[in-house]
Amino acid sequence: MNTNELRSEFNRIFPDGGEPRFFYAPGRVNIIGEHIDYNGGMVFPCALTLGTYAAIAKREDNLMRLVSGNIEPPIAVSLEKLEYRKEDGWGNNPKAITKLLTDMGHKLGGFDLYVWGNLPNNAGLSSSASVNVLVATALNTIFGLDMSPVEIALLCQRAENEYLGVNCGIMDMFASAMGKKDHAIMLDCSTLKYEYVPLKLGDYRLVLANTNNPRSLADSKYNQRRAECEEALKILRTVCDITNLCELSPDQFEEYSKKAFGEEVIRVALYGENAILDSGEKPKLTFDAPEVTAYRRALHVINENDRVTKAKEALEFGDISELGALMNASHCSLQVLYEVTGKELDALAYAAVSLNHPQTLDTEAPAYTKVHGSRMTGAGFGGCTVSIVHKDNVDDFIELVGWTYTKDTGLVADFYVAETDDGAREVYL
Ligand code: GLA
Predict the structure, then answer these.
(1) Residue 291 neighbours by CB under 8 Å, 6+ apart
(2) How high is the pLDDT of residue 356?
(3) Of 87, 276, 343, 393, which sits with the fewest C-beta atoms within 10 Å of its C-beta?
(4) Tens-place pLDDT, residues 224-238
């Protein structure tokens, strides 16, 4: 939708509204570094040309009227009544931002807001962060609040954590606020230091595949993973002085975890309940014992953090094959150790990498299809995969992975060739 279309929708919905201004905030794809932003790790996302647009105009009174092109009906709320209400659905996002800004002492007035997005909802491409960053960027501009994009990202994270009940990290909103076209952002989530890394993929493309699998209970499982990481941190802190899991290298983790978790936990976590202990006995702990689970979560987090640094180096060297191998390893770890993939994401990721070995597919695959890596992106539990595909193979990829996915799951996937974009901004006619 261009700004002319946004304007006519805005005028149709709010015939008595003022003169609107227009804003855009992108969604994001994370190339690698999953479930480590809230563990003080490194992440590697890019902002996308898929995102959310707003037309917004100030009002004379204290009312906010909210309409989403994707979700009707309109919501009208007074700035004095900004508490969370389930029935306000997506409208709780703009309410959250407005409430936090007001609580910070900013003087806001009423406004009419129309938003329209082309990000698939619940696809793990940060539609929620995109709406929050969009509203915060728009309010920051029209009310002259003078906040930087990083401050906007932090505000949006608080909106999720304190108002919307999702205990997420900073990655999504940072990518949406700070994205840069043709670059990925290497972000250290413990310090918010960042570096833009040119996304030099040569003849390769990032292809997103949406499972179209509704993500049930995703928020509660996400919060549970966070709690399990906190448990792991608590156990490790009995033997070393750390504030975040990602302060440990894989070698340090191996050393400290022997003392902190002990032999039995590690054996059961790695080899299951039938493992044999050094004493020759069988373990008493079950695979789902809290400390065994905590160990497996930490093992993912610490190795994933290490993979991000290696992925950045691979990209800088133009070693796309190494980047892809790291992405495959990331997916396996998220499947086996972190348990956030599910059969749909696994079906997509494995169908994608199987294209390098067409004989493993029950289909007429071309003799050689270059897919250098595939992994789930975002929180998981449904959502999207991201794959590195040779540009000449994108059509085959979509056809063959789509076919295999439907055969395996009965669902139909959607595909997007990702294009990167700058972060949130005002857009003009
Ligand atoms: C969601 C959260 C992010 C991050 C990812 C997993 O997208 O919003 O903060 O934790 O999941 O990497």
Answers:
(1) 231, 235, 261, 265, 285
(2) 75
(3) 87
(4) 999 999 999 999 999
**What is the rounded distance in angstroms from the CA atom of residue 277 to the CA atom of residue 273?**
10
- Of the residues 37, 172, 306, 421, only one is catalytic, namely 172
* Cα distance between residue 6 and residue 48, in whole Å: 20
Is 172 designated active site?
yes
Question: Who's near 328: CB < 8 A, 6+ residues apart?
Answer: 349, 353, 373, 374, 375
Instruction: Order across the sheet with 111-117: list the strands.
Output: 75-78, 63-68, 111-117, 45-58, 21-30, 425-427
Tokens linked to 190:
């413990």
The parts of the chain modelled with pLDDT lower than 50 are none
Cα–Cα–Cα angle for 235, 240, 245, rounded to 5 degrees: 65
Q: Are 152 and 83 in contact (CB under 8 A)?
A: no
The dihedral region occupied by 217, where left means phi > 0, alpha psi between -120 and 50, and beta the remainder, is: left
As a whole number of angstroms, the distance between CA 52 and CA 176 comes to 10
Q: From ligand 1's centre to the CA of 35, what distance in Å?
A: 6
Residue 255: burial class (beta carbons within 10 Å; 0-12, 13-18, 19+): middle
